[in-house]
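User: ABC transporter ATP-binding protein. Structure?
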Amino acid sequence: MTAPLLETRALCKTFGKVQAVRSVDLALPRGRTFGLVGESGSGKSTVARLVLRLIEATSGDIRFGDEDLRRLGGEALRRRRRRMQMIFQDPYGSLNGRMTVGETLVEPQLVHDIGTGGRARRDRARSLLREVGLPDSAMDRFPHEFSGGQRQRIAIARALATDPELIVADEPVSALDVSVQAQILNLLGDMQREHQTTMLFISHDLRVVRYVCDEIAVMYLGEIVERGPRDRVYDRPAHPYTQALLTSAPGSPRKDGKRAKLAGEIPSADAIPTGCAFRSRCPHAFDRCKIEAPRMQDVGGGQTAACHLLDR
Ligand SMILES: Nc1ncnc2c1ncn2[C@@H]1O[C@H](COP(=O)(O)OP(=O)(O)OP(=O)(O)O)[C@@H](O)[C@H]1O
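Assistant: Predicted structure:
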């Protein structure tokens, strides 16, 4: 095993009384796609913003390569940022409508001092467009002239323009028509492999995550409750929350009727249940779950989960 590209230890973020991220340990292997799943409000986007240092952590560590990301400032942080890019859910909002596609792809190169001269940068922009399946003629057009899927292609090309080591994709296909989602997921997968980029892929949709991720972590109310290689987590989910998410997913193949669907709403992050945070919705909750928070434990095959049932 090579050292992970990105690692967090006991990462926490509070917004007043809201505990958005609670002691998250992550390790993203280089050149792989790591999926972070959970319902809306589980803290996924906050983790993304923390690791890109768009917001400051309340406590905990973030290591990027051999650097302590939370201590970086000034020029060193700027250099680091060049190696990290984000792809957002909304390709309409994330592209500047007043810039042509060519300008959109040249600008990050300028900001980060990549390439020498306008000509080289425009050549690179055209080659990025071709990579994401758009013609050279797109260079002089504006984002609004493209469909949602095409705009997400432009956003992917822009993310690649600085040759990043890490791409954080936050719900990158959730705003797209279902018919276009698979194309964009394929493209992201191809790009990731081609460029050997490490990707943190965030989605509430387990089907989407299964499609692209090598490893998966499941978040609930700011904590990671289960983690492991993709097939292990899908085929043998150990945590009742993961089981319920899988049973509740549209098109779920699990028709064995043994597993409960996800009941009720996720509690508010400013009133997290004591003990196990999932107990208020867990069909298996018992006394111990009220008083003691379960620790992550090994369930074999590189999979870990935090549930008292595992001790039974
Ligand atoms: N700037 C903020 N101020 C206050 N609370 C916040 C802020 N950002 C996030 N939160 C809260 O933190 C919790 C986690 O939010 P976050 O957006 O990270 O979840 P998520 O899993 O990404 O969900 P979604 O998909 O809806 O964005 C939520 O309760 C949210 O309301």
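The CA atoms of residues 79 and 102 lie 23 Å apart. The first helix runs from residue 44 to 51.
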